[in-house]
Amino acid sequence: MTGLRTLVRAGAHTLAQAGIASADVDALALAAHVLRVETSEVRRRMVLGGDLPTGFEDAYAAQLAERARRVPLQHLTGRAHFRRITLAVGPGVFVPRPETEVLVGLALAEIDRLTGLGREVGEGGGGIRLVDLCAGSGAIAFAVKDERPDTAVRALELSDEALAWARHNRALLDLDVELVQGDATLPCFADWAGTVDVVTVNPPYIPADATPIEVEVRDHDPGLALYGGGGDGLAIAVRIAGVAASMLRPGGLLLMEHAESQGGSLPAALTSAGAWTEVGDHLDLCARPRVTSARTASRGRLMDAD
Ligand SMILES: C[S@@+](CC[C@H](N)C(=O)[O-])C[C@H]1O[C@@H](n2cnc3c(N)ncnc32)[C@H](O)[C@@H]1O
User: Fold this and answer.
1) What topology does CATH give the domain 82-305?
2) What is the pLDDT of residues 229-280, one digit of tens each?
């Protein structure tokens, strides 16, 4: 019988030949998935050797073949890791990306800033309020709730399928986040109007004529999650920003993810909309512009400590 080390190395070679940049990592992750262990355990068994379960070789070959035809790794394993949580994902929902973790970090920093200013948290739901629009799997909303459990978190998603994944994840993670189906370009969460501290959004933002090169994205992420409308891909994002402005309290913070190419155009669009101050942009871990931040005009300097 062929050993695990040989099989994983051959698997990585197969994936590399299929043009997959992360071939080594993916070959390891698929072996872990088939063996139902963590990747650290696969590495251990690759060094120590030992018998493989009956059927492993065939099952692993089948997974590698699917990955080689560019089915996303996360659809095969059914899992996506995001900050401290693991989300269930599959067809019908956008796979959360590492760059979105930066947006979550900015949201947590704002929650910590408000907490430092003495804002009460967790009292009858009357504490710091965050709304996540375009929730998808729930990655942003659940990561915030996981890391700052006293924050009151609500999330909105349009797609039936994505919302079903988000509900499934809420049950798996056992997090108290309100999930609502709706269109983020229209007013929502009316009972929180003008009171929200942070709105997070990772909207669809790809221009209609800029079909993604990556097969995994083009063929497997839902179109509703990708294409943002308008020549620059920002039509939906700008409409959502308008909704966010009416939801936020004075001095409240909008954090919106965008494409690398939109680090100038999205801040410019928000600035010209007039509702925003302190418009800025933030880099991801690869130093690419990926998140625009903006505040609603404050009634006064003391507003941040309301
Ligand atoms: C890029 S994905 C982001 C998903 C998730 N927030 C994340 O970061 O992984 C965009 C999501 O927005 C949803 N969406 C698109 N248009 C929407 C709209 N008008 N209102 C609400 N959700 C929308 C899509 O279904 C998709 O789940």
Assistant:
1) Rossmann fold (3.40.50)
2) 988 999 999 999 999 999 999 999 999 999 999 999 999 999 999 899 999 9
User: What pTM does this model have?
Assistant: 0.93
Cβ proximity of 177 and 151 under 8 Å: no
Q: Domain limits of the chain?
A: 4-69, 82-305
184 lines ligand 1 (CB under 6 A): yes
Q: Where are the extended beta strands (E) located within 93-165?
A: 129-133, 152-157
| 203 alpha carbon – ligand 1 mean position (Å) | 5
**255 Cα: distance to centroid of ligand 1 (angstroms):** 14
Atom from ligand 1 closest to the CA of residue 239: 19
- CA 305–ligand 1 middle distance (angstroms): 31
Torsion of CA 284, 20, 80, 77, to 10 degrees: 180
